[in-house]
Recover the amino acids of this structure.
């Protein structure tokens, strides 16, 4: 620890700037589907889903993604960190680049 910061936690954080997505032969659609499957199995929160999609599928930073979806970078950060309670419209706007959205339907 330096200056009261847990350095191991900082080193393990995933960043879009670390490298372009290495899909290892997978298409973006296949990569997206694998991440969505993790979400559907309860392995990822909505925020972690967004972060993995943004980094692993698109390979872009929060500020670039914010411009793409026309939502502030702070809102993207808050959602990725599972902070806040956002409207269906905001969530749909954020997940639109991945062909995902929330909708109501019959069970």
């Amino acid at each position: 620890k330096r200056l009261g910061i847990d350095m191991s936690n900082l080193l393990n954080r995933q960043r879009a700037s670390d490298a372009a997505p290495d899909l290892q032969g997978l298409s973006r659609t296949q990569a997206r589907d694998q991440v969505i499957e993790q979400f559907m199995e309860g392995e990822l929160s909505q925020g972690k889903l967004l972060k993995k999609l943004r980094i692993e599928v698109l390979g872009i930073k929060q500020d670039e993604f914010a411009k793409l979806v026309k939502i502030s970078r702070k809102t993207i950060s808050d959602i990725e960190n599972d902070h806040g309670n956002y409207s269906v419209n905001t969530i749909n706007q954020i997940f639109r680049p991945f062909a995902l959205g929330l909708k109501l339907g019959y069970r």
User: Anything to note?
Assistant: The mean pLDDT is 83.
